[in-house]
Write a structure and sequence with these properties.
Layout lengths: L23 E9 L3 E3 L21 E2 L6 E4 L6 E7 L6 E10 L4 H11 L3 E7 L4 E4 L7 E7 L9 E10 L5 E2 L2 E4 L2 E4 L6
Antiparallel strand pairs: 1-4, 1-7, 2-3, 5-6, 6-10, 7-8, 8-11, 9-10, 12-13
């Protein structure tokens, strides 16, 4: 019996004059996957193809687990995505460069638990959409570099580089983010 392959392609329009605000906001969130018991998922059709980049469902966290935050410099931080692999198994490599201005003891200690832990990172874009790096399928790689600056006019920084494979460019999260400072409604526009 032959498989009936229906198309999931859609037109992709854009109205001239619609603002597309670049960049990310000044706070990112992260949590070790060992504290995540359940993940939101991409919706799929009967053939297993992702039909949207908006995750459905919420994160189920272990008892007393809460998302942690890192304040970053938005002008020096960036979220990108690029295709990787070969047809029919191409995926997206989502990358986040998050620059924190501090280089003190707390920022230095963060390197140890970020470098050696499989985390999920969530970043808010300038339109109020929350984008996810990390999932239950592939390991998230994060590395931390620190720069104490040079001379009287140098700049200090702790830079967190994140690479996470996914099926779509940094999927959208529209659930509730349970942080140590209270819950955040991420439903926004997802646009």
């Amino acid at each position: 019996m032959a498989t009936k392959c229906t198309s999931i392609q859609k037109s992709l329009g854009w109205c001239q004059g619609t603002p597309e605000l670049p960049g990310v906001k000044r706070r990112i969130y992260f949590l070790a996957k060992s504290f995540i018991l359940g993940y939101p998922q991409l919706p799929r059709d009967e053939l297993g193809r992702a039909t949207s980049a908006i995750l459905t469902g919420s994160y189920t966290l272990a008892a007393d687990a809460k998302w942690k935050y890192i304040d970053i410099l938005p002008d020096k931080s960036q979220l990108t995505s690029e295709a990787q692999g070969e047809l029919p198994s191409q995926t997206q490599l989502n990358k986040l460069v998050a620059v924190h201005p501090g280089v003190g003891a707390e920022a230095s200690a963060a390197a140890a638990y970020i470098n050696n832990t499989d985390n999920v990172f969530i970043v808010e874009d300038m339109k109020g959409n929350f984008r996810v790096l990390g999932n239950d399928k592939w390991t998230t790689k994060a590395t931390v570099a620190q720069d104490l600056g040079q001379g009287a006019t140098g700049t200090t920084s702790t830079t967190i580089n994140v690479e996470a494979t996914d099926e779509v460019p940094a999927p959208f999260f529209v659930g509730t983010l349970e942080t140590e400072d209270g819950d955040i409604d991420c439903s926004g526009k997802a646009a």
